[in-house]
Structures are given as C-alpha cells and as structure tokens.
Amino acid sequence: MQISNSAKKQEGTQVDLRGKPRMSEFLIQNFLMLCGLLSIVITAGIVFELGKESLLFFGRQQWEQSNKVLTQDLALADSQIHLDTVGSQLENGDLLRIDEEMLLVLDAGSTQIEVERAAQGSQLAAHNQGSEIEIASTVSLLEFFTGIDWNPQIGKFGIWALVNATLMTSLAAIVVALPLGLATAIYLSEYASQRARSALKPILEVLAGVPTVVYGYFALTFMTPLLRTIFGLERVEIYNTASAGIVIGILILPLVSSMSEDALSAVPNSLREAAYGLGATRLETALRVVVPAALSGIVAAFIVAISRAIGETMIVAIAAGAGSSFTFNPFEAAETMTGHIVRISGGDLSYDSLDYNSIFAIGLMLFLMTLSLNIFSQRIVRRFREVYE
Amino acid sequence: MSVKSKNSDAFSADQQRRHRLGHAWLVFFQAATVVGIIALMALLLNIINSSFGFVLLEDTVSRESLSPSGVALEDLSRDDLVTIFNDNVSTGLFTRYEREKPFQQRTQADVYALVIDFVVEPEIKEQWSLVDSLLNRDEIQAIAINEHPQGHLEFRNWLDWDFVRSPQSSFVELAGVRTAIFGSLWTIAIAILFAFPVGVGAAIYLEEYAEDTFISRIVQTNINNLAGVPSIIYGILGLAIFVRALEPLTSGSFFGVADPLTANGRTILSAGLTLGLLVLPLIIINAQEAIKAVPNSLRRASSGLGATRWQTIWHHVLPGALPGILTGTILAISRAIGETAPMVVIGASTFIQVDPSGPFSKFTTLPIQIFQWTARPQDVFRNLAAAASLTLLIMLLTMNASAIFLRNRYGKKQ
C-alpha cells in the first residue's frame, strides 16, 4: 500500500506504521471484486445458454406430415410400401414414421418405395391401408442461413424471412433518425442559445424515457392510420413495417442527437474561431470543420442507434404484424426476429419443443448482430477519435 | 483595378449565396429539432385522446324487465336485489360471491353494483375519442338517438379511480390495472434489491481497487457491451436460467412455499432478477461516473490521516458520490418499469385477478397489460391501453420528479 511505503521511509519514528493485515478490508475487497466479475458471468451465461439451446435446435429431429397415406396394407414381412403421388416428394435416405415404427427409404419411386423396416431400433409392426406417413426433418445450418421461408408448422426455418423484416424496420428507423438526429445535434450544439438548449434537451430526454410499449401503441393507433390516409387504405396494410420503423426512428432520435451533440460539443472552440477568422460562415464552420472533427463520435452514435433499432421489440411486436413473410414492401406486414420471439413465447411454451429451441437460435443471431455493432462503434471511437488539448 | 473589382464582385455574389445556403440549412436544423417535439406532443395527445371520450352504453337486459313492480332498480331493497341476482346468474357465480362475503352482510349499493355488472350488463356499443367528443358532439348524439334508442350516452374518463383500483377483468367496464401495478412494484423492488448493491459494489471495485490490468479492462469493455444488449436477450437468459434451471428456487418449492396455482418458475422472483440483470450495467456505469467525479484530494486527505482504503471509500467517497449514484439508479428503475419484452418471454401471466402475495406469485405488469390490450382486435380495449399508458407515464414522471427533488435536497446538504 502506498501509505505504509511512504511511512516506512520516514526516519526516526517509534510507532510501527506498517500496514496491518485487516480481515474485513480483505473480505470487502474480494466481495467487490466478485460484483465486478459478475458481469463476465452474465455474458458467459448469455453465450452459453444461447449456444447450448441453439445446438439443440440444429441437431433436433422432428416429425412432419408428408400428406401421404399407405394405399395398401403393410404386412410385417413387406419391404415395399405403396403410396400415391400426392404430398411431399420422398428421397433416398429419408426417414419415415408410420404409427410408432420408423422406416428408412432405400429406393424411392413415385408410387412404390423400397424401405428398411424397423429402422433406428423401432418396433416392427403391421400397418393398415390409410395409415398416415410422417417424415423426419432436421434443421440444417445451411437451410437456416439461406432459407427465406420461416414457418415452424411445416418445418421451414429460413432465418432470412425474419432478418429481412428486421432490416426493413431498422432501415426505416435509420432514414428517420439519423438525418433528423444529426441535424438536431448540430442545431443544439452550434446554433441554439443556452436558454433554448436547456428547454429542448429535457424534451428529448422525456422522449427517450417513454416505454417502448407505449411507442408500440402510438405506432398502431397513430402512425399506421396516418400512413393509410396518406398512401391509401388498399396499399397500406393495418400491420406494416414502415409504421413500426418510423416510430422506432422517433424512439432512437434522442439517442442519436444526444450522443452526437456530446461529440460536437467536445470539439474545442479554437477550431470554430479559426474557421470564422478565415471567413467561413456559421454553416461552413459547422459542416466543414466541427462535424468532420467530431466524426468518430457521430459515427459511433449512428452505430449504437442502429443496434438499438435492430434489438427493438415491442414496437414491432405490436405494429409490424404477426406471421413471417419475406417482402421488400414496407407497407406489408412482416415479422421481425424480436417480434417472432415475443409472439411464440407469449403462450405457454413447453421446454422441449422446437419453438423453444428456435427462440435461442434467433436470440443468438440477434445477440451477435448487436454485439458486433456495439464493439465496432467502440473501436471507431477509440481508433479515429481526434484528440485536442 | 478592374481585376480587383471583378474579384470582389464575384466574392460578394458568392457571399450572398453562402449566406442564403446558411439560412436554408438553419431552417432545416430547426425543423429537425421541432420534429422531436412534435412527435412527443403527438404521442401524448394520442394517448390522452383515447383516455377520455363519449361511450354509448346499452343494457343487455333492460332494467324495467327486472323490476316488474315498476320501482326503479336502484331504489329496490337489498333483499329484492339479491333475489334478482340469484334468479339471473348461474348458481356457481352466486355461491362464489356468497362465499366471498355473505349477501346478508353486503350493502344495498354493493348488491346493486353486482346486479348491474352481471345481470343488466351494460355493454359498450360504440366509443369516441376526446377530439371527436368535443368537436362532433351533436353528430354523436344524433347517432345515439337514431341507432341505439335503448342506449344512453355518457362521457367516460377511462383513467378514473376505479380503473386504478380494480383488478383485471374480461369485461371492459370492470377492467383495471390494480394487479398490474402491484406486479410492477414487486418486480422493480426485487430488481433493485439485487442490482443496487451489486452494481455499486462493482463500480467501487472498478474505480477504487482495480488496477489497469488486462482483466479489469475486459470487465469494463464487457459492461459497456452488456449495456447495449437488447432487452429481449435478457428475457431469453432469464427464461433459461431463472424460470427453467433454477425452477425449484424461483417457484418457491425449495422453501416449501410454492404457490399451488403456479408451481413453475414464472414468478415475480424470476422477473425481478431478470430485470436486475438488465439494469445492472446501467447502474454500474452511472455509479462509476459518480465515483469518478469525487475529487481525488478527498481520498488523499483521508489516506493521509491514516484511514484505510475501505474507510476512505465508506466515509468520504460514497457520501460524495451518493446523489449521482441515486440519480443513476432511479434512471435505471425508470428503464426497468417500462420493460415489456423480457417480461413476455419470462412468461408474465396475461390474465390474473388476484394481487401478488409474495415473490413466488404469478404476476403481470403494467406494460404487459398495455401490450395485451393493444393487441386485442376490439377497438374498445384500445381505450384501456391508453388509460394504462397514461398511468405508466404518470408513474414514471412521479419517479423522475422525486429523483430530481431528492438529488437537489441531498446535494444542498453536502
């Protein structure tokens, strides 16, 4: 400890001033350290749980209706099953299930199929004509990352349907919030008087403090009717990504403006005065000197705002619509990643279902997207910040 | 000479253009600033607009048919009303209310209210927003007379005392936010009990003890990142850890006090802890700022007088940082009280009528109620959602105002 060291250097002291071991100090320090380390535990918990359940999601086998039925009775000794052509196309290697017995497809024809009976240790049994055939499917990583159809009922798990909707709402939010937020920040930092600033900033803070569910209500009961009046009832659906996105934009506007204003205010006055001295107008000073000098902070604000827009949940859950669809039309309903998680976890979700696992897979995707954006923004601040004395 | 004047002409022409440009952009900057204000106004007006307004009520069973003697329903004696109630509702319902409180002990007004709610069942046929009610009063009255001659029109304040006081109900008429408010208060209390000590502890460690090592830098970066994780991810984490993995603890069965109605981990305790994790990074970051702002001279003076590190922190650093820490905590509470997504994922009950009785009860919160009512297809529930939103905003406003008040008061003492 610093105190005892300096005490030791003093000469001629009679009293022993060396630091004594103190049990309580030691305990307190360790307790505080544990508090600090808890944050690491939380992150580890998030990564572990999301990862674990996502792995279950990808490995999981589930049974789907093939819409095929046996057209003839299947006796114990038969290795040929007879089907009609309706329903899904079977391929070699597909695993089928009739009642409790599993069958492996060896040679798939259109109406007659060669199978291995009692596959995977299941019980051999005879089946009657008309028995329904189920087909096994697992979610593959390839399908997850390339598919554009998300429909758990029929075993379609293409994340792009959800990601696309998230990107649509975020894009609308960005279009609203970034220009307006930056303009507000420039006005507050470069033009507004002290009085105007002290009146305007609390208003923006109130806007940032309104719960998102109230914004969701606002989107559904104000923004959607507004859009429908402007663009026509037949063109704009009741639930649409544009309305949700615009309201997310309003939500993140205060975030953009306050972070950007902090960055702009941090630019030293000498730069502004130098620009004025060279004959620049106020606008030229603001746009060509102050904004470039604060650019790293502004970009960081933008990225944080985008990450917030991607993770925003209640507004999209209320206003963007239920049921995923892959569409680029902002006036159509589409379900985002967060909206989907909220909808399917709204009911009583059983722990061993594919739905339960799928929210972790979506959550992991969402976590990685927002985390990388946040890290990116911190990097930008650290790397490109102009340091003035 | 001519060259010079030509240049200065060009300069002044250009200068005019530059100034015009400056003005045009200034108008844009100002307009952008105003957009935020307009949005806030629109938001508030939109909520207020739906929280008040005319409703058109029509009785499902006419009052005259219930009282053949010709005496007005509200003037009948209690016993007559009990008979009417008994005759017109199912035996189950009657026994339930009898068991709750015997009819002989109820007042006439109490029984009258029951008869109105369950027998007469006035139903809202139509409702209008505040703006409509004020501007198109005559038109609304005309509609009321022409289309619903049996009905009567009344000006409804959706956010009245009954709304705050009544529990949830499937009848729009009776629905209130009492259970939701209690649920919100319980979850917030648990979140703060957990997050405040841990958050302030972590901030003290990072600011006062930790040296600039690799690990402490990791912790710091990690906290900043956690603050940016979407709240729904915390909900998923809470679902996996508190609701599922720690179910014996969070359902209370480990302590033998599990609510027989729930018997799973979807309790106030799980929700509170999840919210606690959610606000922890915010509390840490704010507390760190507050501790940083305490001047170093205080620490040096204290150390110089022989105080230990902890004595310095406890007696000098913390008192100085407390106003900042408290403000940060209240901001974190305001954030937590409005959180909806994690609560939905955790599995807040959408429909419960009993007040939560402890940390192991099922729960619903105010934002959940707003979400539920907004998601209903019937328009009339939107009015309830608006009134609940207004309640939530008033709660938030009160809390923030009290934070400012506390800070100013405490700050002056320092």
Distance between the termini of chain A: 33 Å
- The residue ranges of chain A in which pLDDT falls below 50 over 5 or more consecutive positions are none
The order of strands across the largest sheet of chain A is: 1-6-3-4-5-2
Shape category of chain B:
flat
Strand content of chain A: 5-15%
Q: Give the helix tally of chain A.
A: 13
Rounded to an integer, what's the Rg of chain B over CA atoms?
30 Å
Give the largest interface pair and sizes.
A-B, 91 and 87 residues
Round the mean pLDDT of chain B to the nearest integer and report it.
Answer: 84
Query: What is the topology, as strand order, of the major beta sheet of chain B?
Result: 2-1-3
Described by its quaternary structure, the protein is: heterodimer
Please write the CATH class name of the largest domain in chain A: Mainly Alpha
Q: How much helical structure, as a percent, in the residues of chain A? A: 55-70%
Judging by the overall fold, what is the CATH architecture of the largest domain in chain A?
A: Orthogonal Bundle
Q: Give the full name of the CATH homologous superfamily of the largest domain in chain A.
A: MetI-like
Q: Major sheet of chain A: size, sense and barrel closure?
A: 6 strands, antiparallel
Order of helices and strands of chain B: HEHHHHEHHEHHHHHHHHHHH
Largest β-sheet summary of chain B: 3 strands, antiparallel
For the record, the CATH class of the domain at 178-413 in chain B is Mainly Alpha
SSE string of chain A: HHEEEEEEHEEHHHHHHHHHH
Alpha carbon gyration radius of chain A: 31 Å
